[in-house]
């Protein structure tokens, strides 16, 4: 099995940033995810940082202090303010160089401790922005349990379409309404036509939902007309974030044929602030297989590496906090848990498929994984699934119920990688809150 | 009827750029479309220009020469190099100010003739770029004759879906593969599964097609969560271009359910270089009506102005030049003609609908109209329609036939507005050429 494990993954590695050694932290020295931050409430420019324990290494400060290798400093220097795209475009080598440099500099006993100490900003004092300019956002549909469950609701006679097991189904989403964790958005207005009604009416969505997804940021792109071979596909992936693909189910049901979801999805999409790099995920790779009886992928989607290590073991969770919970000081409640290793198509397959027709991917493009539901009924990655299409309300611990989201509800996505013999890493929360709908536009 | 006609539309107005007075020109002084150009083969920066006759007014030169009003100069000055977005964001007022200033400066007898003469570049010496950064591209489906004809082929039992007459159907497209007229692109590879085959294979699309559309560039945007009222919707439109939504029909048929077109469309999209402003289109507005028996639009899509002047009378044409025609020195052959006034939904309705859920439009966003086919069989805006799904080849004047596009074929879209009592204006050609497919990626 091809492995890219190195010293930076050593589970014995400890940091002089002591909070990074807490077993519960998302950000041990083995993770080192990249984001875009500034001090909360300041008018500082957003700048790239790397999370370590409860701190952030300010990469602009580290660059100025001479604490980064020349190629990393040069790639960061090429970035436009607040946009990591130029760094992402450099591909794997420079990303690995940053990881090695910070691993060395942040480990216990490092000669760089004094230098890097002066570049730390506490996460408690930080706010985040999108890590890069997102020129393209494509949402895939790689969760077969989700596709089957939702297919049953939209097309009872035909839940999983014949193309599903051959084509990594995807569609283009809207980039302008993507925001970082903490996004609060108004419940969307839209055309609603219950099956029993003759004509649609305009109103606030009554079936507002979340979707539990991962997002893949593209690193190096490809030229128009030049497909990316499956063997090289993962080299074009920069890293992963959590992604909440908020969905208005009533709008979706009425609008989606024949050209797919549009206003049902494009009002808001939330991602977690830290990009967990492909290198950090290295210890959690596993074999990717096809269930017996399922077709093998076409050659342009198949490779030895895909089969040996195409899957990634990431535990995914959805948590909900209602306004009543918040008022009563109650923490969010977990609604479900699933795992990304159940995805039907891999990160590499998404990239190879997206570019097979010559479509040019660009650094900073975001690829959604589609909703990651597990095989069991209680593993639905959306309320649509957990409530069987809104027919069986979810009962919450405080006695409340939910069929779909209500105003003031906060949804938190969480993800963590654990494997015996390796240090666990996390993604940090991806959090979003529903605000009341606006008035319909005046006439 | 609300009218915004003014002195700049006076059909008697003549220019000291004598080629602008040729009745056949696309660019009389009543048009004044905006584009992004440089001298062909130079390493000059692309800069904004306005077409007049066979010349271009270099707006950067005109600004430096002091020939533009202060607000226009300031808006142009705010633009990033090669990107009109900051100018477009200023909305209608600054666009009108530019139009008035150039109309005054370019008319016969203008005191600015000497000054502006020095700012002219011949179109014969120019090459073009996209006029702005296109952050979002949404393709609508407003051609009801196209939707019906294509619906018959994809869903014989159910050609026009129940939502069509209520919802301005649209979906998100890919921005990275949009290019300006002259684009040559490789025939896409994709999964092909003829209805008779059990499994798909990877191969070059055998059913490559064009689609005749108009594209609407968004001027001023809206904030996330703030729908645009139908009464204000057209104020957010900057102007129109021709748009060729190249489509691989075999890929589309296999991939498009349930999430819509993806690789069938995102390999290339071509637009004409000059944006014809909403002001230039003013004389060609007409009443917009619903056919008897069709539902009236919901209130958020309805307004007095929509009904009085929602339609735009633009004659649209598709021309084809095969490699053999080119070798023999034959001009392209016209394949069809239709008119944009037949669109089922207006420009304002597209904008009001797109934002009703709070989705934020951004300056420079591009909205495709969908294929504009006419009501007659010979008015199909794609080969799919003209050949009845590939079953009846089109016979060309030189004895060749086409069911779908072959390598080397050049497709030219053309558009022109004519109305008695007004000066005719044109859009200039939107031209694209099919190159052979690449090899499948090596394994």
Characterization of the model:
2 copies of one chain form a homodimer. Chain A has 443 residues and is α+β, with helices and mostly antiparallel strands. Chain A folds into 2 domains: 7-129, Fumarylacetoacetase, N-terminal domain (SH3 type barrels); 137-435, Fumarylacetoacetate hydrolase, domain 2 (Alpha-Beta Complex). Helices cover 19% and strands 25% of the residues of chain A. Chain A has helices at residues 59-64, 70-77, 85-89, 92-106, 113-117, 144-154, 230-233, 249-255, 304-309, 323-327, 347-355, 383-386, and strands spanning 34-39, 47-52, 55-58, 120-122, 126-129, 137-140, 170-172, 178-180, 183-186, 189-192, 201-204, 208-209, 212-218, 237-244, 247-248, 269-271, 276-277, 285-286, 311-312, 315-321, 333-339, 366-368, 394-395, 401-402, 410-417, 425-426, 430-435. In chain A, the strands form 7 sheets. In chain A, strands 6, 7, 8, 13, 14, 16, 17 and 22 form an 8-stranded mixed β-sheet that branches. In chain A, strands 9, 20, 21, 25, 26 and 27 form a 6-stranded mixed β-sheet that branches. A 5-stranded antiparallel β-sheet of chain A has the order 4-3-2-1-5. In chain A, a hairpin with a 7-residue loop joins strand 1 (34-39) and strand 2. The first copy, chain A, is globular and about 70 Å long. The model of chain A has no long low-confidence stretch (mean pLDDT 96). Chains A and B meet through strand 7, strand 10, helix 8 and helix 11 of A and strand 7, strand 10, helix 8 and helix 11 of B.
Strand content of chain A: 15-25%
CATH superfamily of the largest domain in chain A: Fumarylacetoacetase-like, C-terminal domain
Largest interface: A-B, 77 and 77 residues
Biggest pleated-sheet summary of chain A: 8 strands, mixed
Described by the principal axes of the CA atoms, the overall outline of chain A is globular
CATH architecture classification of the largest domain in chain A: Alpha-Beta Complex
Q: What structural category characterises the helix and strand content of chain A? A: alpha+beta
Compute the CA-based radius of gyration of chain A.
22 Å
The CATH first-level class of the largest domain in chain A comes to Alpha Beta
| Quaternary state of the chains | homodimer
Helix run count of chain A: 12
Let me know the number of strands of chain A: 27
Unreliable spans of chain A are none
Give the domain tally of chain A. Answer: 2
Protein name (chains A, B): fumarylacetoacetase
GO molecular function, one term (chains A, B): metal ion binding
Keywords (chains A, B): Calcium, Hydrolase, Magnesium, Metal-binding, Phenylalanine catabolism, Tyrosine catabolism
EC number (chains A, B): 3.7.1.2
